[in-house]
Write a structure and sequence with these properties.
Chain lengths: 128, 128
């Protein structure tokens, strides 16, 4: 496994995308609307910042911003076997948000592990 | 620049280190005491989880845990020129926590940018 991206909940996609390109050399290389979000991937070395802007008032990212403001929402780890990573997490008694891989943004397979069982960190497994 | 690590504030270093090794294939490859913290680097692909456990009741990591519990504290971007990265951040009107590189854990040079100017994300520049 390796780091794939840090997911950032934001209400200011355009400003943040411009800033990350200018200051971190991380231009947006892919953008789409996905499950009520504007999602952008800012490429940085072999990984990404993933910008997540709610298109409406509902959903987990809008709730997150309401609760604690913009900021670091999750960390995604790249694997070539999301199902295997989930099986290992389950065997270690981690609480799974997704019992099986599901389609994520950019056509990737993803699955999330609950932060209560990973030291408060929302972890995503992602397979390109 | 590329991702170097995700910094995790935790009160349970040993449990988390064991878990990250088992579930994420991320063993501790370096550990030290630094500025009132037990700091551990769990290697993951080309990057790390950095575990930060307060050794006392004071300091920014202890305050963070008191305020919001264990979790994602910062993201570190690797560069071969922290001073240059800081200069570029300053030019883009970002608020700097460190005006100049300073010694960090593991003998690295580091500098932090204030989350207020990066979408709520505490960003560290790190030079190995």
């Amino acid at each position: 496994m390796e780091f794939d991206h840090a997911g950032i909940a934001t209400a200011e996609f355009d400003d943040l995308a411009a800033l990350y390109e200018t200051v971190f050399d991380a231009p947006v290389v892919h953008e789409e609307e996905f499950e009520g979000l504007r999602v952008g991937f800012c490429e940085l070395g072999g990984g990404y910042f993933e910008l997540l802007e709610p298109l409406g008032d509902d959903g987990p990212i809008a709730d997150y911003i309401d609760r604690q403001g913009s900021g670091l929402h999750h960390v995604a780890l790249r694997t070539d076997d999301v199902a295997g990573a989930l099986a290992r997490a389950k065997e270690a008694d981690l609480a799974l948000i997704d019992e099986e891989p599901r389609p994520g943004a950019w056509g990737h397979d993803v699955a999330f592990v609950h932060p209560d069982s990973t030291g408060g960190v929302l972890v995503e497994f992602v397979e390109h």
